[in-house]
Amino acid sequence: MTIRLFAAMLGGGMIGFEREWGNHHAGLRTHMLVALGAALIMLLSMYGFSQFAEEPNVRMDPARLGAQVISGIGFLGAGTIIRNGLSVSGLTTAASLWVSAAIGLSAGAGFYFVTALATVLMMITLLALNGLGKRVIPSRTTKTLHIVVEDAPGMLKQISHALDTPNVKLGYLNVESMDDGMLGIRISYRTKKQNLFLITETIKLIPGVKSVGNYKEASL
């Protein structure tokens, strides 16, 4: 049992170290505790009620408590997911917590080879595939577009039409009245980095647009 608990902490700790190194919300201690708790629950489910195994009308199910870990770890993962406009962060950390719980269950059940293999595969996913994905998949940037325009009919329609392209995903829209008959418009959108200049220049060509500015929110 001691070996199983330490194996769970080692597997969860390796994943948590990578998350801590990347300055993510849930780090080394969180992942170690998740894996340790999952292993402990699995051991409890397998051996904690052995005194009742010989009782009449008692049916033992060692997987019952472990199944609750898989579904119950979701509340902890949800706490690491943060949404800001079009940007969503923490999904990978939430998934790593879920896998750490599975590694803990595996170690608690005594499947050392599976535990080690899952830990190695998880580290490959977090380290090697992360760099590969950034090189192969073009990154998309979430920006907030600040536009000052004349308060004239049809201005919003023209601006929305300029952003209505397959490569642009629109987020929130905020319109404020300004002095001298002007409107301040803020639009969040997500697109590939190479499209940023083209979008700005297209909006500048609309009659009535006085100024356009891009402000970066996050990179996905």
UniProtKB/TrEMBL annotation:
Keywords: Cell membrane, Membrane, Transmembrane, Transmembrane helix. This is MgtC/SapB family protein. The lineage of its organism: Bacteria, Bacillati, Bacillota, Bacilli, Bacillales. The chain crosses the membrane at residues 32-53, 65-86, 98-129. InterPro entries: ACT-like_dom_sf (IPR045865), MgtC/SapB/SrpB/YhiD_fam (IPR003416), MgtC_SapB_SrpB_YhiD_N (IPR049177). Pfam families: MgtC (PF02308). PANTHER family: MAGNESIUM TRANSPORTER YHID-RELATED (PTHR33778:SF1), PROTEIN MGTC (PTHR33778). It is found in: Cell membrane. Residues 5-132 form the MgtC/SapB/SrpB/YhiD N-terminal domain. It is a multi-pass membrane protein.
